[in-house]
Amino acid sequence: MKVLCLHGKGTSGTIFRSQISSFRSRLPGESIEFDFIDGPFQCTPAPGIDLFYSPPYYSFWERDDVDSIRAAYDWLTEYIAKNGPYDLALMFSQGCVLGSTALLLHQEETPHLPPPFKAAIFVCGGASLIMLEELGFHVSAEARARDAASRTALASQAGSSAVLAQGSSRWTGLESLDSGLSEDELRAEIRSPFRINIPTAHIYGVKDPRYVAGVHLSGICDPEKRRTYDHGGGHEIPRTGAVSDKIAEMFQWAAAQGAV
Description:
Blueprint lengths: L1 E5 L6 H7 L1 H4 L8 E4 L4 E2 L15 E2 L6 H18 L2 E7 L1 H16 L7 E7 L5 H6 L3 E2 L1 H18 L1 H7 L8 H4 L4 H5 L2 E2 L8 E5 L6 H9 L6 E5 L10 H18 L2
Parallel strand pairs: 1-2, 1-5, 5-6, 6-9, 9-10
Antiparallel strand pairs: 3-4, 7-8
Protein name: Serine hydrolase domain-containing protein
Keywords: Hydrolase
Pfam families: FSH1
C-alpha cells in the first residue's frame, strides 16, 4: 500500500507527518508506505503554524488562479509518473484542492488513463471553486460568499494571537453564513456535470471556518463511494483518542478500496 500525502499551504511534508501521527499509530502493522512530499514553492507559514513547527514551509502554488493550479496539476502528474503509482492519496487543506483538481482534470481530459490514485482521503479542505467553474460546474452565489468569508475567518481563528489567547476555543466556524443548513442542502449549492468517481473519505470539523468547503467537496464525489466524518473541531487533525480511532477507521476503509 503506497500513500501519497499532500500537505496544507504554509506547512510541509515533515509537518504533515507530525500532524497525522496520532491516528497513524493506530493503524495495523502491515506495510504502508507514506510518501510525504513538499510543494514546489517556499512560502510564509500558515497562520499559527510557526508556534509549533520550524521552517521551511511550502505551497503547491503561489497565486490562486486557474493557470497556477493547472501548473501544480502538471507538476503533480510528473511527480506521480516518476514515483508512483499510488493506491491512496491523503490530503489536508490546500492538498485537498490539488488532489481534487487532479481527479477532476483526469476525468475531463484523460479518462482513458488510470486515475492518479485509486482512493482519496480529504481532510479539512475543499475543491477550487474557480477550477470547478472552469470545468462547467455551477457554483451558487451563496457558495462563493461562504468561500470568501471562510478564508478570512480561518486566517483570524488560526493565527498566533488567537492560539495564544484562546487555545482550542478559538474555533468558532462560520455560523453567520451556515444558517443551519444540512450537509445535503450545502452540497446542492454546487451543481455537478460529473462527479469524482473513485472511493473517497471526507473528514472535516463543524467548527472549522472551511467546514462548508469540505462538505461541498463531498458533494462532487460519487455518493455511492464516499464516507464522511465530522470530527467536531476546527481546521486541524484532532489527536484525541476517540477522533484518532475514527480517522484510523476511515483510513483503513479507504485503503481497502485503493487496494482493490
